[in-house]
Amino acid sequence: MSGKNFVYLTRERLIELEKELKVMKISGRKEMASKIAEARSHGDLSENAEYDAAKEEQVLFEMRIAKLEDILSRAQIIDTSKMPEDEAHILSKVKIKNIKTKKVVEYLLVSPEEADFQAGKVSVTSPVGQGLLGAKAGQTVEVKAPAGLLKFEILEIN
User: Fold this and answer.
1) Which residues share a beta bridge with 76?
2) Contacts 24+ apart (CB under 8 A), 76-85
3) Domain ranges within the chain, ordered by starting residue
4) Residue 108 pLDDT level (bands cut at 50, 70, 90)
5) Cα separations (Å) of 23 from 59, 128, 138, 148, 152?
6) Is pLDDT at 103 greater than 50 in this prediction?
7) Does domain 7-77 match CATH 1.10.510.10?
8) C-alpha distance across the termini of the chain, in Å
9) Which of 33, 52, 60, 151 has the smallest set of CB atoms within 10 Å of its CB?
């Protein structure tokens, strides 16, 4: 799974991004053009804050479209059937216990593009994700995180 140029996604996430891009290109651009036209109708463009804001929003909107197109052009669907079942890899659900706090959490290891810490999705490029990759149930791993050295016991891998 090397290759810095690839973006590894689940099939579900790929479909979500394709839908988002399609909506942005079809209806999103029309809405953006309408906002700019509306702001333009308010008079002198040199002193029209609404027009400036709409143009800036359009720039950010187009940047998001470009980012989605880039991600989709480099996307690779992950086939977990070819990965070892007994060790943590991308798309593994890993249940861990923090040795110090005794807190048990479960994370899904995902690509950076899918990471969502609040939803329990941890990027394989994050310190915790990197520390868990390749680990097996029963192992204790040490993770160098911004908060310091963390020790986790791997309870389960699915």
Assistant:
1) 8
2) 76/6, 76/7, 76/8, 76/9, 77/9, 77/10, 77/11, 77/14, 78/8, 78/9, 78/10, 78/111, 85/157
3) 7-77, 80-157
4) very high
5) 17, 34, 45, 42, 42
6) yes
7) no
8) 19
9) 60
pLDDT given at position 142: 94
* DSSP string for residues in 132-155: HTT-BTT-EEEEEETTEEEEEEEE
Rounded-to-integer distance, Cα 66 and Cα 125, Å? 23
CATH class of 80-157: alpha beta
Whether the predicted pLDDT of 8 surpasses 90: no
Phi, psi of 96 (to 5 degrees): -130, 155
Dihedrals φ, ψ of 21, to 5°?
-65, -45
Angle at 81 between CA 17 and CA 140, to 5 degrees: 95
Q: What are phi and psi of 142, to 5 degrees?
A: -110, 135
**Residue 41 or residue 56, greater confidence:** 56
